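Homework help board

Subject: predicted structure for assignment chain

Our instructor gave us this sequence and asked us to write out the predicted structure in token form, then describe one feature. I got the tokens but I'm not sure how to describe them. Can anyone check?
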Amino acid sequence: MRIETQNHQPVTSKTVYIPGTYFIVDNQNPDFNIGTAESPLSLEIRGRGHSSWRGVKKPYKIKLAEKAPLLGMNKHKHWALLKFYEPTVAGMQLGNIMGMDWTPSTRPVEVVLNGDYLGLYLLTETNRIGKNRLNIYEQPNWNEDENTIPYGWLVEVDNYYESNQIGIYENDSWNLRITYHSPDSLSTAQRQWLVGEFQDINEAIYTHNKTNSTWEQFIDVDAMARYFIIQEVLDNSDGFHGSFYLHKDMTDDARWVAGPLWDLSCNQRQKTDYTFKMKTSYGFTPHWIGELIQDPDFGIAVRKAWEEFYPQQVQPWMDYIDEHLLLCDEAFEQEKVRWNYTNQETIGQRVDRLKEALLSNIEWFNTHLPATPDEIDDMDSANRTVVNVEYVNLAGVRSSRPWNGVNIKVTTYDDGSTSTTKLVVKQ
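My token output:
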């Protein structure tokens, strides 16, 4: 991908776009060629990122003048050029395998900017609401209609301060930053609703009685379970810390859905605990997951999603990683020269090391799945004798046998204590 800015201006701003032109030559798939050196196409380019922008190799945001299906991806104007990073390629494909609502596509590409060879990047679809991206209803800016305000949102649990953001107290130790991406300009009514919504969600998540919590009325538990699995398999500490996106469509039972994925990494260390509990070289705040994992319904959802992935999808995923990364071997050698890498591993060695870490994470997680209601009951009652079991339906009526639908199972022990478990019975 060759980009020329107007008058060869350097790209130094993350907010101001510079006009320019581009064309792409794909030597492996000539059908994907777009534009030519003689007839380039128009775009605008600026910087992007937080910590990544401080690096010597800069990431970029590009906006095409005309929508285009770059390198076989869906037609759009908005794209990102991210640092070439093997876990990003692996993680995005895991999102596809796990059945996330939508996951950004990405393609490796060599970039030349104003005649300067910048090495390997990942040309990536950006997280946006739209027909060829996250295809949901989009909440308009400055909306005052209370009937539609609760629908059509794309937000991010963020670890950086942004101007388009609300904040609430998550617990006694830290706050929760919610960056709103769509809409990006809020009316007073929208802001008040968004603050109240996340205060209610947070209160439901932090309730003491995990077997009778109401957070599932706000958040899609199955999608959150899939998101959790992806972060654990990758061992991505940022998973519930930042770049943690949530979206909400307009449907009769609309709930917040985890995703799309973004900013994926893999620690490539020996996994000894859930990722949100393990230490890193930097401080991070694992939002919500420490509470969610205590809910037996969440444990059930995680196990259900895991059974769809493990073990049948593991080898196809490993094959995909090889197929889409090993073809970059020659370009990666040029990347190492351009940026003076001290680590001289080949792309094959890096891919093997990544796959070894992922397979190790998979096996650890398979033996440390979150507890189910029965397992929680077993742990609670290990040193006590059950003297009575009753089932309470939503109307508060008790029975010695479970009701059809939602029940609260109340177990009484010989020491006078009780435990409660939520369960759903389908007869």
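Reply (TA_rk): Your tokens look well-formed. For the description, you could write something like this. The first strand starts at residue 2 and ends at 5. That's the kind of observation they're looking for.
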